[in-house]
């Protein structure tokens, strides 16, 4: 009689390979006893077909010839099924040295114990490494002979920057080479404002000499004079300038806000609202007909270019120096105030700001949004640059160097990677927007690793140890002490107010939130 | 009356839910139906008009039929026999489930709501993808099935070795090492390397799959236990007096005199900790990455020769002569948990991979299964001879050594078991048992050497290449070592619940404040005592000072008292009001009052 022993094996063993027969059949071990009909029970139904039977009888001959020598005789009384793990190393090891190593994965959570603690350790390491690699300073562009008063981004070229200094000189920089490509004496006295036309072929400057000048972007040929394309002689000093997004219209501010057509030598519209001087004017990049300006009577005035009168204004407790519109959300703008804070407003509801951004310890002089609209950077008189999230009350980053003096103007580059700051001590500095970011092209694996660690840092950001490391920043001594002092002062004021409330008639002294505190009134 | 377009719609089994955009002929048909209704309702109408209309529709139909083949194909949506994403079996999804869904926070906390919703979506997607990937795993687990009237425990090792393929059959072997007496053993984390330690000083490491001897030494001292460290390049040997570390060539690297009389060792691979239990009842932890002793705990429970680790949370379990099992972490000088498991001493302890079950055997010849999450007994078995050694495999098989017989049980933890799954008799008394990871192999060290048994269904068939790869090259091992060291878990993160770190600390403000006061030794928020200012012109006389003090005294308490008094008054007033109303009601006459006497 025959007894069948069927073994299931995931891999054919080496010995069976040379016969070239199907693995399942090869693995049937027969106990020789004499020819007969195989007695199979229902457990091995596949063997019942005639074809298989033929093959089997054929196999019996082959078996005796080839396999039998390898098999020991076993007195089997049973039919058993057995399978053990038998891996073919060829499936797990690379074939040649030129291949990459094979890494089979199994994501079963029970094979990966301590998931949370390991991720936490990774997050901690990533946070530490981020602080180690945080080297934000890229380069310093020197060449100006007086403080840098204004800067302008090129509309089309990422690597071009224009800067104007306090001695009336304008320089055009090549950022990738860190060099000045062109210098021109634009004005007598300060260059107050500068803007590149949307097409990128020319730029406008205003200066203390009461002129608006339009210049060609490319430098004059050999032997040609450096001359403006167009000069408009005004009656008063202009303090700021901005160009429309896609029309040949620009706006200046000084004693009033003027809207100019490029073709005409007199303004097409002038706005005044009982104020004697404006410090800056900015077009909304989304709703392109809207403008906002900061006035010296502590107000921010909104205009519609199509109307003859201003829309509305909000008067604050202190003067705003400049403002910047959010390039992604048309309603929002952020203004840099003299009271050390920045305020983000929704232009529809000016009664109180959306967010108050605190951290500077001196007047904020300039602000610029990232092209993503998620963050903005501010420059301050306290010699630091800070980066805020658009809805974050405190800064996520502070940049400073020993040599940098009062930072007057700041720009966030159009590729969202760099920040440019112009300061009092005649230098323009190039910073990374993400201090620990690696510059240059990243390999895919590198990028994946960076994304992964970023996610981990996010996941564990509230753990005390990780937060402590992530928040740690070195600050100059003066700023550190000033911050502390301000905190004490604020606390004292709060305490005093609480005491006043406590000792006055209930309801007579209302609670005023930090947001409401700084707005005096809204005028329409 | 169905037009070809509509017919196609009916055929698709998908389209029932989705409504196709309206087509011009559908409108026509509806009109027709309306017309029919009209006809029915109105009864006799001008037949001519009807005829005309029918003609029109017929023409329209003809036109349609002319166009139909091309038009119909255009209109027919691409019918997918398996619409939507492929279904995933529920149990497979369950395998990758990390935690239950959170309760949605209130609408006011819309930011948090958003964050939670987004993260939950992401984790759900990850779970699904992992479950899908599970289908692609190359290997399947082993098994052993007997005939209907046959016990699998009667099948001998020789039969199994005969039946399986030759490479697998070669994994059943005996090493006859009768000279240096009973052997303890350990497999490396990848399962490739075997370490043998004979009681009388013989230490050997073997690449057992290829049967290559890596090194063989005699330490000329008694050997209590042997253990691989994180890689197969180093191992620890607990010798008669001290703890020694050797490399894979048999060269002595360290002799650690701080660790004396060690009887048992456990290595915690993710923490790089070597935990040792000594005859002097000390439980010590050695950080092998920096070579420092992390903790030394005097357990005060006598000789410690029963030890195992919980691979799920890196807690060390110790068995004692008084029948208790104690749980230890390096962060606490006291036992985390003490469980009375047996009457008489504990002989052996084992914890399964998921950290759910603990199996213990004692001098009372009982084998007990506990749930270590709740510390409750689940099962209790009586073994006539009692089990001296226990070991749990990756897939939950339990091997128990009773004298010179090794028995393997299946599903001990989940259902009552009457028979062993497999059994094997050896030449000598069993001294050490260890399942080989990622293989269907059980290593048994006994008085007469070492036996490698085949236990189908013991090992995890699919390993993770980044965690423990048996086929890794030297370069891959180096890489892995660096990565593993980078993410070494600090010993202070060892706790009973390993997911504790991901949970929100919901201690109240008062609790935290109390802790802070305890740490600092003073209350930082406490108010200073009021000291009146010194005033001139006799206004600081003792009486005046007292008066001024009185003004400020109990300022905060006064507010509280005032408020509570007000509240009391208010409640009193309300109560009175209620009583008044009640009284008013009771004085009112009702219709039922006439029945009162």
From TrEMBL, chain A:
Pathway: Protein modification; protein ubiquitination
Chief location category: nucleus
Pfam families: Sof1, WD40
Coiled coil: none
Subcellular localization: Nucleus, Nucleolus
SUPFAM superfamilies xref list: WD40 repeat-like
GO biological process, one term: female gamete generation
Protein name: DDB1- and CUL4-associated factor 13
Gene: DCAF13
